[in-house]
Design a protein that fits this description.
This protein starts with a helix and ends in an 11-residue tail after the last helix. The protein has four helices and no strands. The protein has helices spanning 4-30, 34-67, 74-99, 104-132.
Length: 143
């Protein structure tokens, strides 16, 4: 299992990089101000950072209980990313509607676009993170 400090490094790095990419991308697509999008992105980022932290602990504990390991296969990485984004989708649509004065359908379409972006981004980020910061091998107790 990862240390608490490692989990925070992972979550904060994920959110900061994602925030920069999303704000610049939405500014280009919607033409909305970077400041307005930045505030929305920062709120989403804080929400997602805490969700990321809690979600990854729960996912790892479930993997450890079911598989005896926290090493993710390709199908588990895909499931990991899908479930993470589904949890955020529920919380973000109402906020997008209010903050950007969008209809439900506009907000849903935009949020689905963000989900697609974040699915790909989460997959790539987590894969690179695991490569750059591998999970330490368990230490065996010597008698």
């Amino acid at each position: 299992m990862r240390t608490q400090a490692d989990r925070w490094r992972h979550a904060i790095g994920f959110e900061l990089t994602g925030l920069i990419l999303v704000v610049l991308g939405l500014n280009w697509i919607l033409g909305a101000g970077i400041g307005h999008l930045g505030v929305m992105g920062a709120i989403f980022s804080v929400l997602a950072t805490f969700w990321n932290y809690v979600y990854n602990i729960g996912f790892d504990k479930a993997m450890l209980a079911r598989r005896g390991s926290v090493i993710k296969t390709l199908p588990l990485r895909l499931l990991h990313a899908l479930l993470f984004e589904a949890g955020l989708l529920v919380a973000t649509i109402p906020f997008i509607m209010w903050w950007l004065s969008m209809s439900f359908w506009q907000a849903l379409r935009m949020d689905i676009g963000l989900v697609i972006f974040y699915l790909i981004y989460a997959f790539v980020y987590n894969w690179l993170y695991d490569y750059l910061f591998p999970i330490p091998a368990p230490h065996s107790k010597q008698g």
